[in-house]
Amino acid sequence: MVSLSPSTILGLERTMNKTEADPTEIMDKETRTTEIEEEEGQENYGEGDTVDAKPDRRSRFLFFGSKKKDGKLQEKEQSSESHYRIVSPTFQYKMSHRRIGKCIIINNKNFDEKTGMNVRNGTDRDAGELFKCFTNLGFEVTIYNDQTCKNMEWLLKKVSEEDHSDRSCFACILLSHGEEGMIYGTDGAMPIKSMTSFFRGDMCKSLLGKPKLFFIQACRGSEFDDGVQTDSGPPNDMIETDASPRHKIPVEADFLFAYSTVPGYYSWRNPGRGSWFVQALCNVLDEFGKQLEIVQILTRVNYMVATNFESWSEDPRFSEKKQIPCVVSMLTKELYFN
């Protein structure tokens, strides 16, 4: 049996007191550790979707994703206060309203001398063919001839203020001289956007979520498309040009612009037969207007204009030129006229 002196026993007791942990101290440490982890988690969770622009502390967006901690990805817990709304999509516009829609044709043929613009021979034929074509599709069609800039703007503003609740869509056809971004009234040019903006989602509520179609037969510049050599048929007659659940949607959504040519180029018109673009558009709509989707229709129009037409003129500078239409679509669904 080992005998310990009183001084040895006292030393051992002091050593044990130093190595044993105080339970209250352990709890304090655990509490502090938990608080730090919660603060870190809250700080990371507040970081959300952002934009590629200068930082703005006023705009933060919560998101679902993963955060990185200690080199590993950890799944974030779902917030009970914010979430993405999942909407079941419908991929076709509803075309079963009582009326399919209104179609406005602005046909400008004669221009004030001060504009320097020539008479647009052949445009009356275009207007007549378009009237028949869109009437057959079920539209209520009205033709307005030789309109000034002020009259064109007033006319479309008035139409945009009508109640279109029982209509499925809206169509507007502009036949005139033009430049890039501009269309001519009989007394001068005006921005196309100044007319189309009346039908934005925040301006024309009864057409919100419905297709707004604009067909524009006009030049968009003064360049010629010489084309490339390929096997082609005989040239056409002499050609003239038109120179010179509840959810938010974007205000610019559901528009479609079908231009007769691409930016910067002339658009061709035959004085006897009408413009290339309108001829092709009416041909395709007459045959496939109630079968194909609108983008399919306009793709066939592009093909027909590109392959079936070539300019001829006594002035060689205007001969053997080509043209390709241009479609700009902000439609959010498929559009069938059936």
UniProtKB/TrEMBL annotation:
Any one Gene Ontology BP term: protein maturation
Xref: Pfam families: Peptidase_C14
Gene Ontology terms: cellular component: cytoplasm
SMART domains in the record: CASc (SM00115)
Compartments where found: Cytoplasm
Basic and acidic residues composition bias: residue spans: 15-35
Family: Belongs to the peptidase C14A family.
Protein name: Caspase 7, apoptosis-related cysteine peptidase
